[in-house]
Design brief:
The protein is 38% helix and 12% strand. With 1024 residues, it is an alpha/beta fold. It has an eight-stranded mixed sheet with strand order 3-9-10-8-7-4-6-5, sandwiched between helices. The two termini are 65 Å apart. Bound molecules: thiamine diphosphate (TPP) and magnesium ion. The site of magnesium ion has 6 residues, from helix 13.
Amino acid sequence: MAWWIRAGSNITKLAIKRRTISQSIPYAIRKTISSPQNQYFHSSTFKSSPPVPRSVPLSRLTDSFLDGTSSVYLEELQRAWEEDPNSVDESWDNFFRNFVGQAPTSPGISGQTIQESMRLLLLVRSYQVNGHMKAKLDPLNLENREIPEDLELALYGFDEADLDREFFLGVWRMSGFLSENRPVQTLRTILTRLEQAYCGNIGYEYMHIADRDKCNWLREKIETPVPTHYNRDRRLVMLDRLIWSSQFENFLATKWTAAKRFGLEGGETLIPGMKELIDRSADLGVESIVIGMPHRGRLNVLGNVVRKPLRQIFSEFSSGTKPVDEIGLYTGTGDVKYHLGTSYDRATRGGKRIHLSLVANPSHLEAVDPVVIGKTRAKQYYSNDLDRTKNMGILLHGDGSFAGQGVVYETLHLSGLPNYTTGGTIHIVVNNQVAFTTDPRSGRSSQYCTDVAKALDAPIFHVNGDDLEAVVHVCELAAEWRQVFHCDVVVDIVCYRRFGHNEIDEPSFTQPKMYKVIRNHESALDIYQKKLLESSEIANEDIDRIHKKISAILNEEFIASKDYVPKKRDWLSAYWSGFKSPEQLSRIRNTGVKPDILKNVGKAITTLPENFNAHRAINKIFKDRSQMIENEEGIDWAVAEALAFATLLVEGNHVRLSGQDVERGTFSHRHAVVHDQETGEKYCPLDHVTMNQNEEMFTVSNSSLSEFAVLGFELGYSMENPNALVIWEAQFGDFANGAQVIFDQFYSSGEAKWLRQTGLVVLLPHGYDGQGPEHSSARLERYLQMSDDHPYVIPEMDPTLRKQIQECNWQIVNVTTPANYFHVLRRQLHREFRKPLIVMAPKNLLRHKECKSNLSEFDDNKGHPGFDKQGTKFKRLIKDKNNHSDLEEGIRRLVLCSGKIYYELDEERNKVDGDGKELAICRVEQLSPFPYDVIQRELNRYPNAEIVWCQEEPMNMGAYSYVAPRLWTAMRDIGRGEMEDIKYVGRGPSAATATGFYQVHVKEQTGLIQNALKPDPISTNIMC
Ligand SMILES: Cc1ncc(C[n+]2csc(CCOP(=O)(O)OP(=O)(O)O)c2C)c(N)n1
Ligand SMILES: [Mg+2]
């Protein structure tokens, strides 16, 4: 521990001791130290001996004001002094010298004076650290906060009589009160400004930030010589905006008395605050803002901030959001009005235009956070916003959800990561001090609902929501902070909720006392109007004029809303023009690539630079890879993936792969980034596929250890521009359940609810190889259950008319060859629509000797097994390997399966039916939407075969319950049998996904494989 901590503590003890003494013997000590000479500090004018250093036992070092932040400060001083004793004030020079036993430079300095300065300094620090505890944040004044002792003068040995004495505060290279231009001040001046700055209607929390420049910047803004004053023009604008905010809610309340709108009443100052924040951001260079927010005040933000036409909002209130009379136009399922998103260009106060988009969100609080951040990051990429000053994210939160939802923390932690940062998000908490019916006391363990942001070094500005100008002030400050420091900041608007959680709720059931106060509490608008009238700057007529103007517009818009005809779907942003909605047929394209391109990119992705000292094993891998390309055979999974990425890059697309440990690959198979063993330098072959390739065009990035936030981020990223292959890979498929909200609320249903497409790919490692219950299953069944393709109706399957995929919510594949993986990835971009793709990714197939493809299967030349009428493309079903003819009457069993179990079945078949005369095995590569046409083709090929569905997952898991009704539908349609003709061979129903005992696993696995291929007919389902 630094010696000065002991010193500081010593002084604290002195201060405490002195206070105790002064209580019994008034002023006894003060008299000694406040001799007339030291009212003005001049180091040369008085002489006394320096204080004798005294050590304090460690056990007594518990003073609160020598906590982390004070210590950091003093440590800084010590460091500065050690480097250059002249860099600190002479008094401190002497102070430090005393403690290290050196002779002071100026023997005339009073130790007592030094102590006074130090105590004062500690007082200032205490205000900086804890002043917010005394700030008047609660408009209802119900808050019962204890004011910390370290904000009391007495603790530092001062009292009333000292107020008009001048003190020396030091001349540290410090902003605000401790700046060089005001070293000598009276205690009263210091205290008054400390109280004004830190204990008014704004509570600043920033002393947890370790960066000195950032703290100084804030001190400069906070510790101003006089409080901020807005001129009449600014005040009129603020007033106008507050009236808009207040009248908007009143208007909705009177027109739709029983509708739920999650009104903003009690927190109306949010709207002028946000508008000022946006104006200020635009002044500072921001051109586009992505906003994410919950239900509270959403309509108000949509109408007044984003400027969605009021007539449209009103029309949606009256008739819902589904457009009528638009036959054939895809409308999806729609969503309730307070979840919808929109985007508009808005004029700002400074005469600029700024693009605002409010992202649609589900009811799940905070789930939209990472989506907004991902979208913002994508905007930065596509607009070449290298310093991230043109595109910014704003997230609004409720107090309950900000403190309670883990995704908040997960999202905050993306903020500083190189491949996820957006250069700072502005968070605004509409802190109405209640969450539905829950009081903060029951809702969180931390003092503030914003404490989670302290982990990030984000400054937090708490503000009394009744004080419009204070709200505006901190909103502007937040905008400035973000543009200067490019990191997150939090504005906590402490307000209240005038009505219940929604308009039909009764809040007094649960918060009777609070609501008694609220009933008699003046609105923020009344308070502000009064304040302006009192200042005589604005007259009653001015206020009336604004009210009348706004109410006239609201009424006009209401009348216009009656004839409002919803426009054609406005779901395609500029980048998406030409993309097709589900009802517009998109041609099926092939995805093969010219052989010379394959060879060229193949070389780029398998070559490491000369003089690069890769690990020996990596060198071998790259050598093998280069052989694969050269010999045009034996292409493995990793090379196939890299070929897909490389060919997409050559075609000008952006490729981004993120997830835990994806650079190397969880199974040490990808090696997308290679590390020089001597220099530690990294090399990413896929960054060198085209000439002068933009560094970010191919991005592969290890992510933070979060599923929810990272998947949400990639989802948001993928929605910005369709010409990108964006992939999230789970470490093991089972971990994806940590991101379940994103799957349920966004990924599977976003297009249906909000008409927003995404081509995001999710890779979920899946497969039973004896690793136990947690690392075997990616829970295929869950995704299949959420697929919306009809189990009993076969859609149009003609290749020229087929829209099956377009009409479904997503695609789920369980691919078994490297070439098919290559094509399914490329297919994502080679079509005129975008659709989510979930891939059950392999584990042991990554190195399986049979799981290899020839380079010809990737190319577009005729004559290889992947080539058909359309050219080379993804195969939804892989036929039996024995090249059977169109009719094989001798085959007695058709085993249908999916995924890596195929290779085990095939191995067994080689033993029991080497020439493939009796058994046929087909792989269903695309499970959803179900490939009815090719399934029927295979059923017709083997008219006498028993039909078996074989899977390695337990019966209640895997694809069985999804496949069974669809297979039946396919069979029935061609008179090929009924449900009971489908025989199941696999594991029995189970609670756990897999056994934890390896021996049991082996027994089950061999059992199911042997049973699926056994010589006797299969008369009943077999469970192993
Ligand atoms: C993840 C999630 N859990 C629960 C809910 C149900 N819910 C809706 S609003 C609400 C209270 C939110 O409180 P707060 O964040 O303070 O916002 P406020 O409504 O007070 O503005 C709850 C629990 C939800 N929407 N999302
Ligand atoms: Mg709340």
